[in-house]
Specification:
- By secondary structure, the chain is of the alpha/beta class.
- The protein contains 12 helices and 11 strands.
- The strands form 2 sheets. A 9-stranded mixed sheet has the order 3-2-1-4-5-6-11-9-10, sandwiched between helices.
- Helix 1 crosses helix 12 and helix 3 packs across helix 4.
- It starts with a strand and ends with a helix.
- The model has no long low-confidence stretch (mean pLDDT 92).
């Protein structure tokens, strides 16, 4: 079976780094490009991190293209310190990249890469959706040409009290993406939050050599990461795992809207901007497949197998 062509749009980011490692270690995927967006930290650092990760993960032929430094509606400060650290990669220290990003803007790269391969390219969005929205605004037919879009963001199994970071970072972009006329596969933080790196998982990561010692274990053990009794969640990794094996998640059709002008304070409050509102019994086909469950054992079996294979390659 031919490898599935993907472009990964991300804001590295601790769990973005772990998701890129899964993609790099998966022969089921052909990575056509990595595009970066401001999110966990500013665009300069998400791009620098993507460049470092490209070289560390032995993806030298994969172009890295920088995208938007802020949301559609204007500037916003990047998230600093917790939970991704000042650099964006927590305690991970990788050498400076030796090669620069490719010329151009991520939105243009997305359009041209998908236009030249209609029906073949799956977009995987792990951060704020600004680049995807800009690409759709520039060329609405992107939604027809793409094989699909898999994103990490939102919450679909109950009414969320607050929006997750990716949706809140650019609600207008999220609304554009869900309204583009395609079927979005959305892995929400409620489902992805079940993928937690407990002690046994961390020890398995540690056994992967340089990959584990220099990247994976420092990622999951960074003190800023929120963690329950079972360890920190590795949200973004779940979106890549779904592309490799859709049976990792349980998905159902839904009609999803994104709140862009709400105010969650005071009487008559509406959901905060970025909140995803999902009708799991839509009239008609809906605009999304949303994850309502995660097969945790299957997820870790797939992910750790890919990490072990990549670890052997990296030494």
């Amino acid at each position: 079976m031919a490898a599935r062509k993907v472009i990964i749009d991300c804001d590295p980011g601790i769990d973005d780094a772990m998701a890129l490692a899964l993609a790099a270690g998966s022969p089921e995927l052909e990575i056509l490009g990595i595009t970066t967006v401001a999110g966990n930290v500013g665009l300069d650092r998400t791009t620098a991190n993507a460049l470092r990760l490209r070289e560390f993960l032995d993806m030298d032929e994969v172009p890295v293209v920088a995208g938007s430094p802020g949301p559609l509606s204007g500037d916003r400060p990047p998230r600093e310190g917790r939970p991704h650290g000042v650099s964006g990669l927590g305690a991970v220290v990788l050498p400076e990249a030796t090669r620069p990003p490719a010329a151009g803007h991520a939105a243009g790269f997305l359009v041209e890469a998908v236009r030249s391969r209609p029906g073949e390219v799956t977009l995987v969005a792990l951060g704020p959706l600004t680049n995807i929205a800009l690409a759709l605004r520039a060329e609405p037919r992107l939604a027809e040409w793409a094989r699909g879009l898999v994103l990490l963001g939102g919450s679909y199994t109950g009414r969320p009290a607050v929006p997750d970071f990716n949706m809140a970072a650019d609600p207008e972009a999220a609304a554009v993406v869900f309204g583009a006329g395609w079927t979005v596969t959305a892995i929400g933080v409620d489902a992805a939050g079940r993928a937690r790196a407990g002690h046994a998982v961390v020890e398995a990561m540690r056994a992967t050599g340089r990959l584990g010692g220099e990247l994976l274990v420092p990622c999951v053990e960074f003190p800023g990461r929120a963690r329950g009794d079972d360890g920190p969640a590795v949200y973004d990794v779940c979106a890549v795992a779904h592309v490799i094996d859709p049976a990792v998640t349980v998905t159902v059709p839904a009609a999803v809207t994104v709140e862009t002008s709400g105010d969650d304070s005071g009487p008559g409050a509406r959901p905060a901007p970025g909140t995803t509102l999902a009708d799991l019994r839509p009239r008609g086909p809906g605009n999304a497949l949303v994850a309502t469950g995660l097969d945790v054992d299957r997820f870790w079996e797939l992910t750790l197998a890919a990490y072990r294979g990549l670890g052997r390659r990296l030494g």
